[in-house]
TrEMBL record:
Record's keyword annotation contains Hydrolase: yes
Keywords: Hydrolase
SUPFAM superfamilies: alpha/beta-Hydrolases (SSF53474)
Gene3D superfamilies registered for this protein in UniProt: alpha/beta hydrolase
Protein name, per record: Alpha/beta hydrolase
Record carries keyword Hydrolase: yes
InterPro entries tied to this protein: AB_hydrolase_1, AB_hydrolase_fold, AB_hydrolase_sf, Epox_hydrolase-like
Domain AB hydrolase-1, residue spans: 14-242
GO molecular function: hydrolase activity
Length: 253
């Protein structure tokens, strides 16, 4: 059902890495290969993204069930689970659905409790996705959107995530209906991992993805199993601050 990318040490500690909305698992390649020695990263293209199935439902619960299937296919009883944005929110729902499958959670600026008017605005905009005359034009758009620290990764993004459609134009490889539905899911009330889940919440201080009060919710539920890390960066933590993100994922920070 899901296409899975595999990076890093073949015999390393298994980590399952979940990307954000409109992304793909290949975005964890550089993080794994340059900053996570001794770690084997399994990074699926989430349902509706990349080379995975595009079929609904696109709920948090279905995404979590998909990741359980990935764990089963990999022969993993448990794994470290990390996620960025939508992927981090799915990781929370995975922990709630199957807490015994999660060793640790590292949540990189999860998308939570998006205000309904903003969710509607973004879902509507998603119905008219950007298209490009050439891959070079797409690369230029991506370079403007990504932090400067990730500029060297744009060529990989174009190679892995851009596809040409029947009309001859180029577009990023994701399902348009899935993105619209994804914003509806992101408008759901925020929930925390269940008690007993070793959780690190990483908040990007120049982002508004994590709503005020969510860290307190997690602390109240998880108590000594919870750690809050705040980084002075934008939303794309793993691209802008890869060394810090990797240290948190590996457990060395």
């Amino acid at each position: 059902m899901l296409h899975v990318h595999h990076f890093g040490d073949d015999n390393g500690t298994p980590v399952v890495a979940l990307h954000g909305l409109t992304g793909h698992g290949g975005r964890f390649r550089a993080l794994a290969e340059k900053h996570l020695p001794g770690v084997r990263v399994h990074a699926p293209d989430l349902r509706g993204h990349g080379r995975s199935t595009t079929y609904p439902p696109w709920t948090f619960e279905q995404h979590a069930a998909d990741i359980i299937e990935v764990l089963d296919d990999l022969g993993l009883d448990r794994a470290v689970i990390t996620g960025h944005s939508l992927g981090a929110t799915i990781a929370v729902h995975l922990a709630r659905l199957a807490p015994d499958r999660v060793d640790r959670l590292i949540l990189l600026d999860p998308g939570l409790a998006l205000p309904p008017p903003l969710a509607e605005e973004r879902a509507t905009a998603a119905l008219d996705p950007p298209t490009f005359d050439t891959p070079e034009q797409a690369a230029g758009e991506r370079a403007l959107y990504w932090p400067p620290e990730a500029a060297h990764l744009v060529d990989d993004e174009v190679r892995d995530h851009l596809t040409r459609h029947d009309d001859g134009r180029w577009r990023w490889r994701y399902s348009i209906p899935m993105v619209a539905a994804g914003y509806s899911e992101l408008a759901r009330p925020a929930v925390t991992p269940p008690a007993g889940t070793n959780t690190t919440l990483v908040v990007a201080l120049r982002s508004k993805a994590v709503p005020p009060g969510y860290a307190d919710m997690c602390g109240d539920e998880l108590k000594s199993d919870f750690r809050l890390v705040e980084l002075d960066c934008g939303h794309q933590i793993h691209l802008e601050r890869p060394a810090e993100a990797a240290a948190l994922i590996s457990g060395t920070a």
